[in-house]
Every structure is written in structure tokens, then in C-alpha cells.
Amino acid sequence: MKALWFHLMPYPDLKPDFKKKHNSVWVDIDPGVFDPEVGHRAYNEYIDELVHAAAMGFDGVCVNEHHSNAYGMMPSPNLIASALARETSDAAICVMGNSVALYNPPTRVAEEFAMIDCISGGRLIAGFPVGTPMDTCYAYGQNPALLRERYYEAIDFILRAWKEKKPFAFNGRFNKQRYVNAWPRPLQQERPPVWIPGGGSVETWRMCAEKDFVYANLSYFGYKASMASIGGFWKQMKELGKEPNPFQAGFLQFVGVANSRAEALDLYREPADYFYNRSFHTDPAYANPPGYTTEASVRAALGSQVMQAAEQSRRKVRADQSDIFDAGHVVIGSPDEVADTIRRACREMNVGNLMLLLHFGDMSAQLTRYNTDLFATKVLPQIKDLFEKEWENRWWPKGMNAAKRTLAGSTYEPVGIAAQ
Amino acid sequence: MTEPRETFVSTPQGRTRVWRKGAGERVGVFAGIGGQPKWSPFLEALSQTRQVVAVSLPGFPGGPRSEGLDTHLDWIVAARDAMIAADLRGVHLVGASVGGALAAEMAALWPDDVKSLTLIAPFGLFVEAEPVADVFAQPPGGMSAILSRKPKEFDAFLAAPKGVDKAEWEIDALRARVAAAGIVWPLGDTGVSKRMARISAPTLFVWGDGDKVVPPAYSRRFGKAIAGKAKYKTVKNAGHVAEFDQPAAVAAAILAFLEA
Fold it and tell me: What are the boundaries of each domain within chain A?
């Protein structure tokens, strides 16, 4: 079982009346709400939390991309990932990921990911999301009718840029480039593992199944909401005759650990409420631009029970947001209770990659540390063995031989030549 | 109201529906944002004294698929192909909303082929001080409210008729929205301002006084920039889909313009 410590990097200072005074946390969020000094503190605190998680033994640290969004302050997760590549030594650096359809030419993504892979000594997990409608079609103005085609082409472009041994010309539908020559090259050859964060679209399931990518269902509504989508992925895998290796799937889960469920409720109620009722205050008008959901997915939703279940469970969990803890959006409890829930969920869904949000909402640095440390010392040991004996993990960064690695700061001469 | 005569013509994009009704001078029609899922009171009114020829553009009901159309040039060529296939060269051309954006391009690029042009609240321009609304970013199920002064009636007009597969009908409606977005995303500025001076046909600009999508003031911006003689008609109690909200008034304005 792989456990990754995931940070959304939310803006931590939305006022209690935010929902009343503002239309949305996303796309049209009031720029006046952002205080750069709060941003300064938050970024540094959040990077410290990721670094600490890596030191506590989480297998990976994870960042993602959002635009014009106050619950996710990483328009460029690569900036944070490069800091993490320096400040951590063993954890996988999971960038989940770059919305590749937004970058023309996608060479930029091939280059930056290769840089992170080199700096980190081969620890990068390369995530390629299509991106939400809010991020791509509204904040970045992409035509929803063409977004997915651009996305597929950009993934092909980047993988080819990493693989080819010579500069090549790329004559795509959207990208036309005479000289594609990704320099530097990724340390992991022929490429870093590719993970696809996705919702429940038929196309995403199929692509992951066909191309041997990890499918990671990133829902903010917990394992119960992920179940139908993960089920859709495994159904697709079965149809293509692929083996159900749990390490090819992942899901996202908010977790709050304490000494008891009562204490957990007490500690995590407020930050969870901040996330769901303040920083997740979104406008549904931005959720479904025409063409973003493909006709195939619309048809599948009309005809398939799996898709209907996925849609219904999404709607259902959205409907009772008051039941954040009972519905499993946030799993809370004592270490044993949390470990038990996670083991059962992972077994039931057959998922070997657990992406954990142990910081959420406006959680303080102190509480984040408490949650992280309790999870690392008391939950992690109870779940680590899952699937490890039965399955080979082919989707984890290979990394450099530790003996050959250059550690951050190790080449620095404390006394400069001039002083000598 | 009787149904039009339906034929299918072949274009490079695929099988294309053409509806014809009435007698007399031909008037070609490019429909607006949802396409022409049904024969409408507006087309009926127009067909009383003219031969209406409504041709479906790619993605819209009755049209071929629009997935291959990547750029505005692709859309212009597709509209031109539809015009040729429906034998609309040299006749009067009417275009509404997104269809109006393409009708304007026909008149700009092939001025000799457009006898007169009527644009009903066309997309094509964007002025920051008076922006075109984000018509697609509407609350779920709320698009009619921004398009029409009679949203309930408009929803009823767009709903599946009895005996038609509802799911397929919905998918057709979705395709129309995808096509409309394909033409005007993200701002509605199609770059036509560079070509407006090439429009030499006499042109009537029809606008609903309550258009919440493309501001009525755009009619003058458009009209002043063309080479042809511009006429203007503001339709009372009408929204962006003026031809749906006030079919008789819009048809009467067009017929009066064609008479003149």
C-alpha cells in the first residue's frame, strides 16, 4: 500500500461570511480577498508540512493544479514540487498534475517534469489531468468542445518528447512544432510513472486501462463517492482483459485522526466545515460547459448502471453536506478506527494508492502536525502491508541508487574561495 | 402551422437537412444558438410570402457532426458548403445569434452571393465596457432564462415532441450547445470586425430590446462598420432569441426590409 500526503494549499483566511458575500471560490473569486502576506505564511507553512510528512515516512508527497481558486493556491504545482525535490530525500514527488491541454507547446511540461525528476533523483510521478471545467474552460478560456482532444494530443506529445532519442517534428491537430527536443531528459527512463487524476468519465477509464496509467479518483466526498468511479475503471480493465493490480488505482480521502472519535469530532469539525462550507463554495454555472463531458460519457450515463451509480452517489453526498463525517467525506476516529475504515475501503475498491488530505480547510499547523504524526505512527503501520505481497507495483518511481544521489546542500563549500 | 418539406443534401461535412416552405423569393436561414430542432412560428410567418430555406449547420439538429471543426476558418468553410448545397447563393440570408455570426462571414467573404443580409442579435464582436454575457455559464437548466423573455415557453419549444426518444433528443440539444460553444467560445469575438467592411449587402439588424446576451448597442457598432446600407429594428419585449419571443414582429420587420 502506498500512502501519499496530499496538500491542496487552500487560502486559509476566508471570512465566515464568505459564502454570503461572494458568488464563488473559483473562477470569479474576488481578487481583493487575497492578502499576499497571508499567502506568504501559508505557502511556507504548507511546504513545511509536506516536508515533515516525507520525513515521517509517507511514501509520497502530492500537489496539484488549480486556477483562480481559493481552495487550491497552486496554479503551478511544479514550483512547489521543485522545492520539495530539494527538501525531501526519499518520498515520491507526485505532481497530480499539470493540465497539459493548457500549455502550448506542451514541451514546457515535458521540460519542467524532467527537471523535477533530475533534481529529485528520479522520484517524480507525472500526473496529467484533463483539468476541471472551472480551471480549463473558464479560468483559462479553453474551448470545451476541443479540450479533451487537446489533452490527449498533449499527453502523446510529452510521452514522445521523453522517449525519442533525437529531436523530432510534431505535426498534431493543435500543436505544430518543427523541433521537439525536451532537454533536460527525465532521469527515469523511458518515462516517470504516469497517473491520471480523474472523475468518472468513460474516456479516462479507457485511456488508463489501455495505456497502463494509474487511474486516481480525486473526489472530495470520500471513499463512498469514489467507489462507483473506481468500479467503472475496473470494469473497463476487465473488458480489456487487464489484470486488476490495485497499484494501478488510487483515491483521495480526507482523514482526521485523534485519540478517540469524540476527540476527532471536536478537533476536525471546524476545519472540515471551513472546507465544505467556505472554501468549497462553488458556482454550478461553471461546472458543465458544453462539450466538456463527452457525448460518450453522457450516453454511458444514460445507459449504464455504473455511471448512474457514480452520478447518484456524487449527487447524494453533495446533498447531505451536513453529514460530512457520517457520509465518509472525512474519515475520522482513533488510529484503529481509521486504519480499519481505510483497509476495508481499499480492499473493497481494490486500490493500492491512498492520497491523504490530512490538512484541510483552515486547519492550524499544530493540528496538521498532530494529525500527520498520529497517522504516520499509528495508522500507517496498520495499512502498509496491504497488497504488497500479492502484487508488483509497476507504477512507482524507480529513483536513483541512494548511494549515487547528491543530497541538497552536500556540495556547498561553507567557506568561499575569496575568504580562503 | 404545417410542416416544411424536408430534404437532405450532401456537404463535405456530411448529410445536411434542408427545410423548405412557402413560395416566392428565397430566404436562406441559419438558425441561432440551439439550432432548429422544430419548425417554428417565426419560420412559418416568414414562409407566408417568401420561400424559406432553413439549412442545418454542423452540430445543430439536422446537421452533420461538428467534431472535426477546430478553427473559425473550418466553421466558415462548413457554413459556405451548407449554403452551396442548399442552393442559397445569390439569395437573401437571415442568421440569428451564432448562426448570425456565420451569416455575417458569408456576406463578408462572398459579398456577391448575398442579396441581402438580416442579422438577428449576431455574435461576433466583444466590447469590454459592454461585454457579451457568458451564455454557457448559467445555472443548471437556466439557459433559457438568459436567452428568452419567455423562458418557460422556450423550454417547451425545445422539449422533445411526443413519440421521440427523449435521450436522443437531449443528445441532439447537447450537440447544438457544443457547436455553438465551438463557434463563439470564450468571448463571442470571432474576429469579424476585420472583415465587416467587406459586407456590401443591404443589412437589417434585428435586436430584442431585452437581449441579455449580446447587448442591443452592438447593432450600431456592427452597422456602422459595414459598407452596405444598414437598417435597424429593435423588437419590444424580446430577448436574445427575438425570433422566438416575438416571431410575428421579427418576420414583419424582415419582410418590410425585403420589400424596400
Answer: 2-404
